[in-house]
Amino acid sequence: MSRTIGILILFLACFVGVAAAWQETKPATTPDYSGMYSFLREAEYVQLSVEDQNKVSGYISRFGDGESDKGAFLTQFFKQAKLDGQQLTFTTDTVHGVWFEFHGRVERGAGKTPADEAYYVLKGTLTQYHTDSNKKVNAQERAVEWKRFPADADVQVEKRQ
Question: What average pLDDT does range 107-126 have in this prediction?
Answer without folding.
Answer: 96
